[in-house]
Target: Diaminopimelate epimerase
Amino acid sequence: MNGAGNEILILDLRGLDHEVAPQDARAIARAPGLRFDQLMTLHAPRRAEDDAFMRIYNIDGSLSAACGNGTRCVAFALAREGKDALRLETDAGLVETWRLAERVFAVDMGRPGLEWRDIPLAHEVADTRSVALEPPVAGAPTHFSAVSMGNPHAVFFVADAALVDLEALGPALEHHPLFPQRANISFAQILARDDILLRVWERGTGATKACGSAACATLVAAARAGLTQRAARLRLPGGDLEIDWRADDHVTMTGPVEFEFETTLDPRIFQDVAA
Ligand SMILES: N[C@@H](CCC[C@H](N)C(=O)O)C(=O)O
Model:
């Protein structure tokens, strides 16, 4: 499936007692015809009130605790079972989803983490709204805003997002010593007080057409800096997301999903990797 162009592979393990190891996620990422930005595994719920537990893997096999676009894709997959509103548990806690139209879903992404330990950053900073990039990275802005949406985000405000060399700056910033758990890197251009252009380098995956949690983190960072209102359209290369930082401090993300194809996994993809 894809959510605003962010490519998501959902592996439904609800009937099985099986965990996907990082090397399995990497093997699936390399299997012919199975490209993804994130692999979402669905598991039986651990609490009676939830619909499923889900894990989120990047291309490099690393785990994330949040994936906004993937969560909308899971919501669409489970809507085929007649559930238009869901409670999904992740390693970061509960996310709730609801359907607004045939292929449009909203996700309550929870409260942003704004303390330096929440992100986490490598050392204490007084104000996560403007963190000095030390040591500096050639070609990158000198300051960024740090936000956790359950996963770590660094948001750089730039005058022209199209001019950013994402392939060069993305890896250097993802692995910057300020981020002990690495970070998702966003370059945001403010178009209006309710309109933001965004390009994202995702931790563990690379440049993607969209990143829902980055869109949420960017809106929070922009509103904290007084650059926008608390609700805005985020324009990403793969499509638009509507983000609302609500008065109760939760962030709601709304956007499209597309179903691409369904298949079963050929176990030989794991043997190939072992060999
Ligand atoms: N594409 C996702 C974010 C996926 C996780 C991220 N790469 C991380 O490691 O935190 C989204 O839509 O939020």
Remarks:
- The chain has five helices and 17 strands.
